[in-house]
Structures are given as structure tokens and as C-alpha cells.
Amino acid sequence: MKGKSSRESIRLLLVDDHTLFRESLRRLLESEAGVEISGDFANAEDALAAVRAGLEFDAALVDYELEGTGGSNGLDLVRKVRSLRPDARVLMVTAGMELDAGIFLKTEPTVELMLAIQRTAKGERWISSRASLALIASGGLGAGAERTAAGRPSGRESEVLRGVLEGHSNKEIGAQLGMTESSVKAVLQKLFERAGVRSRSQLVRYAIETQIDPR
After folding, report:
1. Helices (H), 122-198
2. b/e map of 27-66 (b: 16 or more CB within 10 Å)?
3. pTM for the complete prediction?
4. Helix axes 181-195, 170-177, angle to 10 degrees
5. Fewer C-beta within 10 Å: the chain N or C terminus?
């Protein structure tokens, strides 16, 4: 996958089997400055064939519930694309059941979608707070249900955790909460210790598995 064009446009690959949604999304995104649509496809097979043929894109928006042969879904397509292009950047346009790619709910506002696209194209992982709560409600990552609620965050820790779940950097969280970046790091370290994890992604998974709602 090559870098962005000289005009810094984000080249998008759209894959969604809902024709009306996909076409509407394409028109919406094409109206945005700095966005190009490299291709849009209704099924995984055609999208994968295009990638194999050398289709260039900076980020892919893939429907989690994408129907394919043998009962495959959007995550199966993501795995196959990444086997061809390990650095592929992907945003799942749904409340998926795994955290291997970014997650975005179709019911969220378009302004949030543009932010998610921009961050995904930069190599960041977008996991919206609404998607996190949807995962909790679905029970899809309920393996941690046996854990106790003794370690639930409160106050400032909850605010920082919410920032993490929304995909913000320490600097951005600090700006939103009126904290220094070092203070945010200190709170995160406490959250890591409380959850028994070592990274932000592990903290997100822990928050979802233990049904922590940071609101």
C-alpha cells in the first residue's frame, strides 16, 4: 500500500452489501474535501480481487455483517486483505465483536465518521464509546463477566477512561479535561495497575469485558 497522494487526499475502499447505504455513503464522502473513493464493492470476493489486482487505498471501511461465501463476514475479509497488505488500515462500520480493527456504528453522526476515517488513515485505532457500549450490551466479549466490580474507576479515572475508549491520545484527553499530559499518564498507570494490564488496547478490552461504563 503506497502513501497518500501529493494533495494528501485519503483514498478509501468501501465494502458494504447494503447498496443504498453504500451508495449514500460514497456520495457523502465524495463531497468531503480531502477524500477520494478508490472503489466500492458489495461483497468480499470482489473487494479482495481488486486488492489482489493492486487497488491502492489508505483506509478501508468494511461492514462487519458483510455476507460472503461459506458464512464469512467483514472480519474474514479484513484478515485476507491484511494477509496481502499487513499494514492495511481498517474501520469496521458497525459494532463488531472483535477489536482487531477500528469500530464505528452506522447510527453515529457523519462528523464522527470523518474523524474516525482520518484517524484510521493515520494508523490509529478508532473505537467509539457508543460501539464499546454496544459491545457490552451484546455480551460479545463477556468473558470477563466473572470479574468483580471492585476495581471500577471513579471521578477523574472514569473521565480519562472515556477518553481512551473514544480513541483520544493522552494530549487530547489532557486538553479536554484541563490536565497535563503527565497527569493523564499517571491516571492511566493507575488504571493499568487496577486492571492488571500493560497497554491501552488491553485496558479497552478489560473495560468492555467487565462492563465498565465510563459515562
Report:
1. 129-138, 156-165, 170-177, 181-195
2. eebeeeeebbbbbbbbbbeebbebbeeebebbbbbbbbeb
3. 0.52
4. 110
5. C
